[in-house]
Model the fold of this input.
Amino acid sequence: MTPSPTTTPDAELVEATARRVVAEHPPTSTPLPELMGAWYDAGLTWVHFPVGLGGLEASRALQPLANRVMREAGGPEPRTVNTIGYGIVAGTIRRYADREFAARRLRPLATGEEKWCQLFSEPGAGSDLAGLATRAVRDGDGWRVNGQKVWNSLAHLSRWAILLARTDPDVPKHKGLTYFVVDMQSPGITVRPLRQITGRAAFNEVFLDDVFIPDSQRFGEVGEGWIVANSTLGDERTSLGDRVAARGSGVIADALALWAAHPERHDPVLRDRLVRLWVRAETQRLTGDRARVAASKGVAGAESAIIKLLNSELAQAVYEFCLELLGPEGTLIDTYSLDAPDDESGPTAIQRKYLRSRATTLEGGTSEIMRNVIGERFLKLPQELRADKGIAWKDIPR
Amino acid sequence: MTQEFEFDDEIVELRSMVREFCAEFSPEALVREHMESELGYDPALWRRLGTDIGVLGLAVPEAYDGDGVGLVAQAVVVDELGAALVCGPVLGTLALAMPTLVALADEDAKRELLPSLCSGEHVATLVAPLATGVLDERAVTIEATENDGWRLTGEVAQVPDGAAADTLLVLARTSDGLALFAVAGDADGLTRTALTTLDLTRRQAAVSFAATPAQLLASGTEAVGAVERAALVASVLLAVESVGGAQRMLDVTVAHVSTRKQFGQPVGAFQAVKHRCANLLIAVETARSAAYHGVWALQDGTDDPQLAAGLAKAAASESYQAVSAGAIQLHGGLGFTWEGSPHLYFKRASTNGLTLGTATQHLDRVAALTLDAVSA
Done:
């Protein structure tokens, strides 16, 4: 059932449609791809998308309503099905792909049958992403790509990737980039797990050797890759505020549980530390809620960048507290085996989270970059002098 | 009814109206004049707030000549008054006396006292031991005796807006327990000594009562309950006032570092300065969330009022102190001068951090309500 194109779907319609889908496909007993397929076909995956592409042409503000129905019926938070696909790719496809590509790729993206990964960062281009060196050179009706990417989560499981590559080294760095989508089964792609501080490999390195990409898989104009990439970074940020978290949830829950479990380790100094962490968690939670309300009224503020920064720093502080609360037990960990199951439960989960939390202030923009962003974008402070400004990429010292 | 954090169009308009009023009628030059005057504020300006633009009785029911709009609206006004550092009995009258009166059952007293507070013609204050942020019943030192009417005797060292108040609401001890009284500013045996305050824009007085005639307003749990309610309301109003002041300091600081040039560029371009500004913004935004959550929780009853008020007060106090101290630092030498703005806000921030409970006292109560409750 698709709604009449002459009516603007309202909250009741979205909710009724969502209720119908979960009634016909009970989330707890329906295979995930089937459930998410029905969700997509009913236009609930991205309610603001066009009808036929997983949406209802409804207001984006109604998405939390649909997701809540799914959640209350025992279903997953939809974006967890395909994190990068939902968070970054879908919006880019809608904006830049032709209808045929969108129609073919969005449904399997939505169901999780085709996972997506992001090939942006490189060993020489982290915070300075626009300085990346992977080259794409014209070859007939497509492009030949060579380079190395890094920090690619899910690359080993992904069917598709979004890729940022340099197509013109003779212009300043931001102007010589082009945005592509790549079939991860293309010849010349090698994915290697990247072992991290926890002993596991949640990320990969991806090597591209003479990989061919048809020109039809270019999004946006040649040289406009930075603009395309930034339009999707915006999507990632705005997707943060779809849900009100419960008080005491998130990383602080680990500290509260550990505190309750170890009364013998209580002392006034630790209690003081913990209540300050609790207050940080609570004010951040409330700020998230405030951002959500503001966004629903179309008033975008600095909150999402702030929340990213705060949550990442809170996670580290919480697990530092937890480890101290554990005392000598905190010096143990079950295993550093590469093959250890990738879950966050078990007796030494806190130690693992403690190690993992060191990445929170690095991934998705380091805390230093986030403070630059907050200062320059939201406080409108003057930009710092940049040594590579206006210089052709090939002439930048590296 | 709007949901939490939803500022509807009326509130948004109210905010800009008060902001424009303050910019026009209480610019910093006038604030400095008022703070160095004997009374410490301009009664005509306060009356205009009450009568001309009608923003003093927003949380007072219409039956007592208020507007009955709610605490969120009143908080937005206090936020803007705090941003402009308007001199006047915000703490004594708006934050303490009015919520105390509203919480009473005595209709006659409310009809007698509230209208002239809403109009700004009169000002009032509350004399009760609230130094820790909650009522400390054991610290009530004023004795009330009934002998040809009620009479109060005793001394209180620090009363906000104590010298200016036309009416003092006084929590006193009777032979039957605590009771709340109203004392006229010109009553016999009332002595008020104005004190020099760290924050000259927020006055205090030492007050002594010597067999001072008083009118009984409420006794027992009703009196205590009204004062406890006022302590919560005042805590969240001081919290939003702190947010208003902190936001203003952030704006002023960002403007300064964007124009002040050293080493051939605006100092705000340097990361050491820029990151510090980002931290100030974060301090303002998180405190705003806590402060307005407290306001909404008290208005709509959506959260434990003790927890919400304690969180609001602790978070906003620490934020305001950090932001105003950061403002001094980022203004460089100018930040240390009498002529510069930051010291005015730094003094208000320091004072707010010590009024109605310190951040650590509030944090201790938050811990009792969250951590200790979990462990017990």
Notes: The first helix of chain A runs from residue 11 to 24. The domain at 117-223 of chain A is CATH 2.40.110.10 (Butyryl-CoA Dehydrogenase, subunit A; domain 2).
